[in-house]
Write a structure and sequence with these properties.
single chain; alpha/beta; six-stranded parallel sheet; four-stranded parallel sheet; 15 helices; 13 strands
Length: about 400
């Protein structure tokens, strides 16, 4: 796997890379992840890192000119590494991973699987790196089309992404497979904490015991809807002072904490900062309602699956990805409408029976449709197809 990011960090595409590697290993495959110098190691995953670039030893989330240096070092790392390991499949994550992996796959005469987790050009716009309609945006779109065409098969993290690849980027339908984000339903599950443990954990975070807690766990950024969430929180607290917002994630939690204080939300918000992926289930267990205000039209939204597996009712902006995961069991607001987002939260805060019912239905949906075991079996069958390996007699293989 070629992972052009600071693997492992506790969000988004990193979770997909990690869980894919874990389930493939459980199915008997050997997986090596080549990634940047930065990031933290994970037990049981073979991670090979680049050297640092001399002028910058860290890497911020999102688009950055420094990624050119990181990606050049990654390309230099994977070539001799692959020459030693002789992989059967090159699996490129994100567009830079597909580009580096495409060169590697041709040199080795191996198939390339491209893990598409959203439009590269759209992400650069979301992060303010490009202006829509500009010349450089057109260049990025053209480059994206070329990269999409390098792979033997493109695996999209949502059905919406698969449609985008076929209809907007012209990838032949037979080379596109939708493999939505999934969730570890054994780790993320209801009932992790007793009532006493839950109360004690809330108290340690300074959350008054009588509050209804709305949880968010993910990146903090404009395109993630963090600003809209805070404006919605202000409206919710005006009506229901017994509601508290536990907003977890990074980067810059202190910046958003200052914004919350300026909105008069200091006593109704808590910003604990980065939460390790391993600790995410116990933190989400402190919530009564979960919120997903992401605005991006092309990226996945794995946080919604974590909420679902925890049995939390979910309020989200009405995007194609949100509908794909939550279906009729979500509560939706028009994208960017903080007032409507507040109304949906208030509806669930005022009807605990309905909130619990939705949470149970979302948990059942996560178990039935989005467990990583099923995803691993599909991914392995895809590998067998592109390498022309015969499928085992008892396929699909079961995860021990």
């Amino acid at each position: 796997m070629v992972a052009p990011t600071s693997f492992f960090a506790d969000y988004g595409c990193h979770v997909r890379i990690l869980e894919e590697a874990r389930v493939l290993q459980a199915l008997g495959e050997r997986v090596t992840v080549a990634t940047y110098f930065t990031g933290r190691d994970v037990d049981g995953v073979d991670i090979r890192r680049t050297l640092p670039i001399p002028w910058r030893r860290d890497y911020a989330v999102g688009s950055s000119r420094h990624k050119i240096g990181f990606d050049a070092l990654l390309a230099a790392r994977v070539l001799p590494l692959a020459a030693r390991l002789r992989p059967h499949v090159v699996h490129g994550h994100l567009h830079e991973g597909a580009l580096i992996g495409g060169v590697l796959a041709r040199l080795l005469r191996r198939p390339l699987v491209f893990d598409f987790q959203g439009s590269m050009a759209s992400e650069m716009v979301d992060h303010g790196f490009l202006r829509p309609g500009s010349r450089w945006h057109a260049v990025a779109m053209a480059a994206e089309r070329r990269i999409n065409g390098l792979a033997h098969v493109v695996v999209a993290s949502t059905h919406h992404g698969a449609r985008l690849l076929r209809e907007e980027f012209g990838v032949p339908p037979e080379r596109v497979q939708a493999l939505p984000d999934h969730v570890n339903v054994e780790c993320f599950r209801p009932g992790l904490l007793t009532a006493d443990e839950r109360a004690a954990a809330r108290s340690r975070l300074g959350i008054p015991p009588e509050r209804t807690v709305v949880v968010y766990l993910g990146l903090l950024a404009a395109y993630q809807g963090t600003d809209h969430l805070l404006r919605a929180a202000r409206r919710v607290v005006d009506v229901r002072p017994d509601v508290h917002f536990l907003i977890m994630g990074f980067p810059g939690p202190h910046v958003y904490q200052d914004t919350a204080r300026a909105l008069g939300l200091g006593d109704h918000t808590t910003f604990p900062g980065r939460v390790a992926y391993e600790a995410a289930p116990s933190r989400l267990a402190l919530g009564d309602i979960a919120v997903g205000p992401k605005l991006s039209a092309t990226e996945g939204s794995g946080k919604l699956l974590n909420y679902m597996a925890m049995g939390l009712p979910v309020v989200a902006f009405d995007t194609a990805v949100s509908r794909e995961f939550l279906a009729e069991n979500g509560r939706y607001a028009p994208p960017g409408d903080a007032g409507a987002l507040a109304e949906r939260i208030l509806e669930l805060a005022g009807d605990r029976e309905e909130a619990c019912r939705l949470g149970r239905r979302l948990r059942r949906r996560a178990e039935a449709e989005f467990g990583w075991r099923k995803a691993g079996e599909r991914l392995l069958a895809l590998y067998d197809g592109v390498t022309h390996r015969p499928a085992p007699a008892n396929a699909p293989r079961a995860v021990p």
